[in-house]
Amino acid sequence: MAGDKLTLVFFVDALGWEIARKLGCFRDVAPYSYRQRTVLGYSCAAQPTILTGLMPDEHGHWGMFYRTERSDLRALRSLRFLPKVISSHRRFRRPLLNYHRRRTGFTGYYNLYRIPFHLFGAFDLIEKRDIYAPGAFASGAKSIFDHLAAADVPYRVWTWKHELDEGFAELETAIRDDHKMRFSLHYTPYIDAFLHGHVGDDEAVAGAVALIERRIARVVELARETQGDVNVIIFSDHGMAETTGEHDVISVVAALGLRQGSDYQVFYDSTMARFWFESPHARDRIVGALKELDYGTVLSDADLKREGVFFGDRRFGELIFLMNPTRLIVPSYMGGRAPRGMHGFSPEHRDSYAMLASSFEVDPEPTHIRDSFRVMMQAAGLQPGPETVDGHGDSAGLSGTASDSNQEVTA
User: Fold this and answer.
1) What are the strands, taking DSSP E only, across 114-248?
2) Global pTM value
3) Does residue 108 share a domain with residue 47?
4) To pair with 115 at 20 to 30 A between CA atoms, which of 77, 282, 377, 388?
C-alpha cells in the first residue's frame, strides 16, 4: 500500500558529493545528506542501478554500446563511405540522430557521438527502451516504475526528454492540479552538461547549482502549501572530476600493426577502452602494450566482479583498460577534444562519489547509489519482492563498500 504523502524525487545528474557538500546544497528542503559510492562506468550503468537497486551485472546495462553479430544499428554502416569531414561533424550527426530515433522507435537515451559508421554492424545499443518507464529491462529487472505501476500508485516522470524550464513548469502544474499524484521523479542533465565545461570554476558551478536549488525549493514550497507534509529525495548518479591529461590510446594500439575487425575489435570510450580478441597473438600484443602505459590499468576479471560489471558472455568487452582518474582517451569515439570535466573513473576517486539528500533520516544509511531505489520505495510505501533477476535476492537494502559513516545531518 502506497503512503499517503506525496513523494517528490529530484535526480540531478552529476552533482557529486564533493560539490554538494562544499556548497551545502538543499539543506532547507532536504537536511539529511549522504555520500554514495557510484558504479564503475557511466550514466548508462548508474541510472539503471538507481532505478532498480541492482548492479549492472544484474540489470544488464553497463556500456551504452555492446558487441553483437546482430546489431539493430547495422543500417548506419551504409554511411561509412562518407568523407570524415562530413560524417564526424555534429551538424551532420545531430539531425541524423533525431532521424534515427524516429525511424527506429527507440525510446531510450543514446547518442552517435563520433563512433565510426563501419562499427555499427558490430555494436548495438543496450538502452532501446526508456528506462524511466515500466518494462524497460530485457533482463527482467524491475524498476521503481514497475513497482509503482503494479501497486497502482499515481505517478509522473520528467526526464532528459524535457527541457529544464519545461519540466519544472509541468511539475508545478501537476502539483497544483493533479491531487491524485502520489509520486513524481524529475530528472535533469543540466548540471552534468554544465560541469563538463566548467568544473573547477567555483563561482560558475555555484551559480549553476543555485539555479537548480531554487527550482527545487519552489516546487517543494508549492507542494507543502497545497498538500501539507511531503517526502523530498534528491540524488545524483556520480560526480565530476576536473581533467588533467589526454592520451592517444588509439595510436598506441594502431602502431602494433594489428587489424581492427579481423585481429581484434575495440570500443574507445572517454575513460576506458574495451577490447575483444580474435587470436591469442592479438591479445598478447595489445595487453603487453597497455601494461606499458602508466596512465591507465588493465582490469582483471576479479576487479570487474568486485564492481558488479562482469558479464560472462563478454558483450561489453573481454578486456577493459581503465584510465587513471582525471586522464582521458583523446581522441575517442566520444569526441575529439578533452572536456574540462569528466566522470567514468574509478568509483573510489573522491570526485566520483554521488550524493543523496532527503527530508527524513534514512536507516540504514544509503551509502551506495543502488540504495536510492530502497529510499524511493520506502518513501512511496512500497516493498520489493524477495527475488529480483535470475534468482538474485533483493540487493536494494545493501550498503556500499564504505565502512565509515557518511551521513551529514544539518537539521
Assistant:
1) 123-125, 155-158, 183-188, 230-235, 241-242, 245-247
2) 0.92
3) no
4) 282
With beta carbons less than 8 A apart as the criterion, state whether 24 and 410 touch.
yes
Query: For residue 378, which amino acid is it?
Result: Q
Q: Which residues contact 305 (CB under 8 A, 6 or more apart)?
A: 57
144 and 196 in a single domain? The answer is: yes
Assess whether the previous peptide bond of 83 is cis (omega < 30° from 0): no
d(CA 389, CA 304): 19
pLDDT digits (tens, 9 = 90+) for 184-236: 999 999 999 999 999 999 999 999 999 999 999 999 999 999 999 999 999 99
The neighbouring-strand residues paired with 221 are none
pLDDT digits (tens, 9 = 90+) for 185-199: 999 999 999 999 999
Is 1 part of a structural domain of the chain?
Answer: no
Residue 385 pLDDT level (bands cut at 50, 70, 90): low
What pLDDT score does 98 carry? 93
- What is the secondary structure of 183-197 as a DSSP string? EEEEEE-HHHHHHHH
Report yes or no on 209 lying in a domain. yes
Phi, psi of 284 (to 5 degrees): -60, -45
